[in-house]
C-alpha cells in the first residue's frame, strides 16, 4: 500500500509529459500544439484544429524511404510533407499545394531560412491579381502575411526556384490545392519544421 502514492505520482508525471500529444500504435500526434502563442513579438492565433482532418495534424509516422534523415519529402498527391527521421520514421505535416496549372515536382535544397519573412508577389502574380501591386516592394511581416511565420527558400542548380515551404494564416487551405505552387503549412507546423530543417537540406517534391 505504501507504493500507491508513488505510483499515482508517476502516473501524473507521465500524463503531464504527454500533454499536447496523443499516441497511436506508439507514434505521436501533436493535435494539442495549435494553440495561441507569442513568437518574436507576433501573436499567433489558435487554429481550430478540430476542423482540420486528423491525418493533416502534425505526427510522427513510420516511413520507409531511401532518403537520409534530415531530407524533406513532399507528397503533393496526398498533401503530406515528411521530414525524414532515423529508424524508419518521419515527422509528417499536412500541407496545401499548387492548384491546377501550378503544380511542380523535382529536387531542390533549402538555401535560406527566414523568420517572419517579407512577402514580395512575383510580377506574374501581380499581372493576374492587380490589387497586389501595392506590395510590389514587399509586404511587411505579420499574421496576415501570406508567407506566415517562417519560410524555407528552395534553390536548385539553376538558382532560386521561386518556390517556398512556408506558413500560412489560411489554415483551411491545408489538404487542398489552392496555392500558386508554394507548399503551405499551418504556422505552428512551419515553426516546427523550421527548427528541424537545416540550410542545405535536400527537398524532394513528388
Please count the beta strands (DSSP E, at least 2 residues each).
15
Poorly predicted segments:
1-20, 22-26
CATH architecture: Beta Barrel
Count of discrete alpha- or pi-helical segments spanning 4 or more residues: 3
Morphology call: globular
**CATH topology annotation:** L,D-transpeptidase catalytic domain-like
CATH class term:
Mainly Beta
Distance between the termini: 58 Å
Radius of gyration: 19 Å
In what order do the strands lie side by side in the largest sheet?
5-8-7-6-15-10-11-12-14
Task: Kindly state the percentage of residues in helix.
Answer: 10-25%
H/E series, N to C?
HEEEEEEEEEEHEEEEHE
CATH H-tier superfamily = L,D-transpeptidase catalytic domain-like
| Secondary structure category | alpha+beta
How confident overall, as mean pLDDT? 86
What can you tell me about this protein's structure?
- The chain has 206 residues and is an alpha+beta fold.
- The chain has one domain (22-205): L,D-transpeptidase catalytic domain-like.
- 15% of the residues lie in helices and 35% in strands.
- It has helices at 4-17, 123-128, 187-196; strands spanning 22-24, 27-29, 37-39, 42-44, 59-62, 72-75, 80-85, 89-94, 97-98, 106-115, 150-156, 159-168, 177-179, 183-186, 202-205.
- The strands form four sheets. A nine-stranded mixed sheet has the order 5-8-7-6-15-10-11-12-14, with helices on one face.
- Strand 6 (72-75) and strand 7 form a beta hairpin.
- The radius of gyration is 19 Å and the shape is globular.
Amino acid at each position: 500500500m505504501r507504493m500507491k502514492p508513488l505510483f499515482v505520482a508517476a502516473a501524473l508525471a507521465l500524463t503531464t509529459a504527454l500533454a499536447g500529444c496523443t499516441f497511436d500504435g506508439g507514434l505521436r500526434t501533436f493535435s494539442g500544439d495549435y494553440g495561441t502563442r507569442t513568437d518574436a513579438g507576433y501573436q499567433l492565433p489558435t487554429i481550430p484544429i478540430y476542423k482540420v482532418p486528423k491525418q493533416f495534424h502534425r505526427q510522427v509516422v513510420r516511413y520507409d524511404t531511401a532518403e537520409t534523415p534530415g531530407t524533406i519529402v513532399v507528397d503533393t498527391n496526398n498533401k503530406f510533407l515528411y521530414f525524414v527521421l532515423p529508424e524508419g520514421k518521419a515527422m509528417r505535416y499536412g500541407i496545401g499545394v499548387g492548384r491546377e496549372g501550378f503544380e511542380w515536382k523535382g529536387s531542390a535544397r533549402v538555401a535560406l531560412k527566414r523568420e517572419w519573412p517579407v512577402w514580395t508577389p512575383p510580377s506574374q502574380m501581380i499581372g493576374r491579381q492587380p490589387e497586389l501591386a501595392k506590395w510590389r516592394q514587399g509586404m511587411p511581416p505579420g499574421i496576415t502575411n501570406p508567407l506566415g511565420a517562417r519560410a524555407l527558400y528552395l534553390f536548385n542548380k539553376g538558382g532560386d526556384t521561386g518556390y517556398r515551404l512556408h506558413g500560412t494564416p489560411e489554415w483551411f487551405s491545408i489538404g487542398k490545392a489552392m496555392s500558386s505552387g508554394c507548399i503551405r503549412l499551418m504556422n505552428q507546423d512551419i515553426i516546427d519544421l523550421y527548427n528541424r530543417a537545416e540550410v542545405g537540406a535536400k527537398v524532394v517534391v513528388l
